Amino acid sequence: MTTFSPRETVTELDRYIIGQKDAKRAVAIALRNRWRRQQLEGPLKDEVTPKNILMIGPTGVGKTEISRRLAKLAGAPFMKVEATKFTEVGYVGRDVEQIIRDLVEVGIGIVRDRKRNEVKAKAHISAEERVLDALVGATASPTTRDSFRKKLRAGELDDKEIEIEVSDTSGGMPNFEIPGMPGGNIGVMNISDLFGKAMGGRQRKVKTTVKQSHDMLVNDESDKLLDMEQIQAEALKLAENEGIVFIDEIDKIANRDGGMGAGVSREGVQRDLLPLVEGSTVATKYGPVKTDHILFIASGAFHVSKPSDLLPELQGRLPIRVELRALEKDDFRRILTETEASLIKQYVALMQTEGVTLDFTEDAIDALAEVAVHLNGTLENIGARRLQTVMERVLDEISYEAPDKSGSTMKIDSDYVRKHVGDLAQDTDLSRFIL
Ligand SMILES: Nc1ncnc2c1ncn2[C@@H]1O[C@H](COP(=O)(O)OP(=O)(O)OP(=O)(O)O)[C@@H](O)[C@H]1O
């Protein structure tokens, strides 16, 4: 669990997201509260539940990005769902539990990666022994082995062909659903998960070079050192205590509509979500998960409906309200230039791989921001996402021709921007399709 203070968290988030101070503060406090709860002892620890957050703001202004970055920073499993997905025809109440099952899967991935790193050093040693076995045989004298080891480490044997045996992960057995399990669709069970160990797993022989065998053997050896049961147990805990679920478009299910039409009623979806947010136990194929301490961040534009249109119980479970504001020209400028891995940095790096240097002038950045604001005003306000389409259009020609222009420097100034998107942006009918 991360020990970041709220201030440190905000500073970290500032590297990726421009503005939106209130939302950053709110998530930073929520993260710190988790750490605070972990410091408590005894029954009080279970009583403290997260103060879930409702983010209110137009599309493309950083709601998801803030939450996703927070999760990454904290090493926490993160899952995003659209609330409207559950109003579609064919969904039934218990389907919302799939969110938690998916969250656990994300947790498994995180824990497995951590563990793989922990055992990497050991796996390297074992992998080397196996290459030596393949090269000189398991019975060779220690002197022979050592002399080959030296050559191996010096890379002298890289191209030599060897035959090794690795576990067959291609999974010869089918996945299947177990019908009639309590909780409906508990998730897909994999027969090899159940019986793989008992049957000792399958091995397959591979002919390869010493060099190429390395990664295969290290992975094979790491997986042997991993204890899947322990990983699953830790992933369940991680999801329970540190999981973050982001529910987008909550405003679209906010009307109390009484269930018209063919889809599931919007109020019905709120009722289905409520047990998750209030705290319940969800069955997963790895075991039960309590949702009491999972942090829920709900988000929506609330142009038509208001947070007070949500069911009272749900309103009560989303006590922290933060507003995110629409982005303006200066925000776009900063998003283009100041954020880590900003679009400008990305394009510069991509073109550099072709030997082309991109030189954006200050007034080009101004022009890009202006065009984005103009298009958001005339077409539809899609927030910072607009920068993607604008940048792509501006750089289309260079991107196409880059391989022929290796060694050159391309200057992009405001004239260049205007020439490539400015005129187009004035034609609303045309730009609706292109930008
Ligand atoms: N304030 C910001 N600073 C930097 N980048 C931003 C900002 N706002 C949005 N972006 C970028 O725009 C894209 C869309 O943002 P995001 O996914 O956070 O939108 P959102 O507010 O969650 O909207 P929606 O509810 O429609 O998903 C992301 O790639 C994100 O990096």
TrEMBL record:
<feature type="domain" description="Clp ATPase C-terminal">
    <location>
        <begin position="327"/>
        <end position="421"/>
    </location>
</feature>
<dbReference type="InterPro" id="IPR050052">
    <property type="entry name" value="ATP-dep_Clp_protease_ClpX"/>
</dbReference>
<feature type="binding site">
    <location>
        <position position="248"/>
    </location>
    <ligand>
        <name>ATP</name>
    </ligand>
</feature>
<dbReference type="GO" id="GO:0005524">
    <property type="term" value="F:ATP binding"/>
</dbReference>
<dbReference type="GO" id="GO:0016887">
    <property type="term" value="F:ATP hydrolysis activity"/>
</dbReference>
<keyword id="KW-0547">Nucleotide-binding</keyword>
<dbReference type="GO" id="GO:0036402">
    <property type="term" value="F:proteasome-activating activity"/>
</dbReference>
<feature type="binding site">
    <location>
        <position position="18"/>
    </location>
    <ligand>
        <name>ATP</name>
    </ligand>
</feature>
<keyword id="KW-0963">Cytoplasm</keyword>
<feature type="binding site">
    <location>
        <position position="385"/>
    </location>
    <ligand>
        <name>ATP</name>
    </ligand>
</feature>
<keyword id="KW-0067">ATP-binding</keyword>
<protein>
    <recommendedName>
        <fullName>ATP-dependent protease ATPase subunit HslU</fullName>
    </recommendedName>
</protein>
<dbReference type="GO" id="GO:0043335">
    <property type="term" value="P:protein unfolding"/>
</dbReference>
<dbReference type="InterPro" id="IPR003959">
    <property type="entry name" value="ATPase_AAA_core"/>
</dbReference>
<dbReference type="InterPro" id="IPR027417">
    <property type="entry name" value="P-loop_NTPase"/>
</dbReference>
<keyword id="KW-0143">Chaperone</keyword>
<comment type="function">
    <text>ATPase subunit of a proteasome-like degradation complex; this subunit has chaperone activity. The binding of ATP and its subsequent hydrolysis by HslU are essential for unfolding of protein substrates subsequently hydrolyzed by HslV. HslU recognizes the N-terminal part of its protein substrates and unfolds these before they are guided to HslV for hydrolysis.</text>
</comment>
<dbReference type="InterPro" id="IPR019489">
    <property type="entry name" value="Clp_ATPase_C"/>
</dbReference>
<dbReference type="InterPro" id="IPR004491">
    <property type="entry name" value="HslU"/>
</dbReference>
<dbReference type="Pfam" id="PF07724">
    <property type="entry name" value="AAA_2"/>
</dbReference>
<dbReference type="GO" id="GO:0008233">
    <property type="term" value="F:peptidase activity"/>
</dbReference>
<keyword id="KW-0645">Protease</keyword>
<dbReference type="GO" id="GO:0009376">
    <property type="term" value="C:HslUV protease complex"/>
</dbReference>
<comment type="similarity">
    <text>Belongs to the ClpX chaperone family. HslU subfamily.</text>
</comment>
<keyword id="KW-0378">Hydrolase</keyword>
<comment type="subunit">
    <text>A double ring-shaped homohexamer of HslV is capped on each side by a ring-shaped HslU homohexamer. The assembly of the HslU/HslV complex is dependent on binding of ATP.</text>
</comment>
<feature type="binding site">
    <location>
        <position position="313"/>
    </location>
    <ligand>
        <name>ATP</name>
    </ligand>
</feature>
<feature type="domain" description="AAA+ ATPase">
    <location>
        <begin position="49"/>
        <end position="324"/>
    </location>
</feature>
<dbReference type="InterPro" id="IPR003593">
    <property type="entry name" value="AAA+_ATPase"/>
</dbReference>
<dbReference type="Pfam" id="PF00004">
    <property type="entry name" value="AAA"/>
</dbReference>
<feature type="binding site">
    <location>
        <begin position="60"/>
        <end position="65"/>
    </location>
    <ligand>
        <name>ATP</name>
    </ligand>
</feature>
